[in-house]
Amino acid sequence: MASLLDPSARGRVILVGAGPGDPGLLTVRAVEALRQADVLVHDGLVDRRVLDLAPRAHRISVAKTRSKHTVPQDAINALIIAHVKTGAIVVRLKGGDPFIFGRGGEEVEAVRAAGLPVEVIPGISAALGAAAEFNLPLTHRDWSSAVSFVAGQCKGLSEQDWSGLAGKGRTLVIYMGVATCPDIADKLMADGVTPDMPVAVLERGTLDGSRALRTLLADLGPMVEREQVKSPAIIIVGEVVLLADAQDRLVGWAKAAEALA
């Protein structure tokens, strides 16, 4: 692997995980890459303070919103490759970690197919950053020995096989699930998860205005609507939610939590 500090290492792509938002959670290697970038191709949710760590780079936003891609993925791939072929160091800056619901795998494949060098610098995924902020352990010897990550925006949600991903002794982390949370709750309960399973919604994790809201699975959809939760937010289902520093948003929560404990 070429050193980021080697000025002769030109014409390559570096996929960098920008973490969950707080610039303090970037890795040292990520900061090095940003400082050396000639071209910065970045997601829309990346904090401006992170972008400012690449002062010499030409910035290109390829922001995406739900069900609307400002720049299609194929066009992003072509954009990256075109700039690398000029000899530029191109940093593809992605929220969270490039390989967790970040399409990093697709971009690596495209760059490799073009015969160009590529490096991936991992980032703290949104779930890990938000969970840590609110002292919510995703695994715990007494509560959960397994954790799964799923995308709540996936096509054909009702046809997805989520059986066994949530329940006693397990933790389920759902990305991009705010808009579909009523369907998510219905699906999990239909697959056998108890309606009184604790669930937390972690909104704007590690950013200003972040909050953690806690309720029970049957109340997930109504709570998100009552509290006007907006993306970005992570949904966590499992008994580990009982340990979080979260605001209870269900009447009778204490009684329900006591029964579970």
Task: Describe, in plain words, how this protein is organized in 3D.
This protein is an alpha/beta fold. The protein folds into two domains: 12-124, Cobalt-precorrin-4 Transmethylase, domain 1 (3-Layer(aba) Sandwich); 127-260, 2-Layer Sandwich (Methyltransferase, Cobalt-precorrin-4 Transmethylase, Domain 2). It is built from eight helices and 13 strands. The strands form three sheets. It has a six-stranded mixed sheet with strand order 8-9-12-10-11-13, sandwiched between helices. A five-stranded parallel sheet has the order 3-2-6-1-7, with helices on both faces. α6 (181-190) runs antiparallel to α7 (220-226). The longest helix is centred in the first third of the chain and has 12 residues, at 73-84. The radius of gyration is 20 Å and the shape is elongated. The termini are far apart. 43% of the residues are buried. The mean pLDDT is 90. Pathway: Porphyrin-containing compound metabolism; siroheme biosynthesis; precorrin-2 from uroporphyrinogen III: step 1/1. Belongs to the precorrin methyltransferase family. One of its GO terms (molecular function) is uroporphyrin-III C-methyltransferase activity. This is uroporphyrinogen-III C-methyltransferase. InterPro entries: 4pyrrol_Mease, 4pyrrol_Methylase_sf, 4pyrrole_Mease_sub1, 4pyrrole_Mease_sub2, CobA/CysG_C, Siro_Cobalamin_biosynth, Uropor_MeTrfase_CS.
